[in-house]
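Supplementary Methods. Inverse-folding protocol.

Structures were first reduced to a discrete structure-token string of length 128. This string, shown here, constituted the complete conditioning input.
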């Protein structure tokens, strides 16, 4: 089996269950789904879908930065939305982080997310 390393940083909220913030496996970083939780207060952020999307992306960025990576290292993103009517709002905010050579992505509507948040995003990045 190849090398597998757990990534843990205070730049994103701690895991709220039996999972890791991220796992480095070889040349890839797999970041678990991030919720709109402020890593300092541990609370869900205000501001509706837009505020939650900004916090989720900040949490993902914090984990990337902890590994000396940037959005340019991201190769795959999965977005889970409570309501697909929020797609345009999320897409505009998402585009600020991934404005150059955006990664592959899917976006799906789900019935419910942990803590009843409106958005969760996971991603895969590559070390290069």
């Amino acid at each position: 089996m190849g090398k597998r390393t757990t990534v843990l940083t205070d730049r994103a909220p701690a895991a709220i269950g039996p999972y890791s913030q991220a796992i480095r496996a070889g040349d890839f970083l797999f970041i678990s789904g991030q919720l709109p939780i402020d890593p300092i207060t541990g609370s869900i952020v205000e501001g509706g879908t837009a505020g939650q999307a900004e916090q989720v992306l900040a949490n993902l960025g914090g984990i990337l930065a902890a590994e000396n990576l940037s959005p340019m290292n991201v190769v795959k993103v999965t977005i889970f939305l409570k309501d697909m009517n929020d797609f345009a709002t999320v897409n505009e905010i998402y585009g600020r982080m991934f404005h150059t050579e955006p990664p592959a992505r899917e976006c799906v509507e789900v019935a419910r997310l942990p803590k009843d948040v409106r958005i969760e995003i996971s991603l895969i990045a590559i070390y290069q």
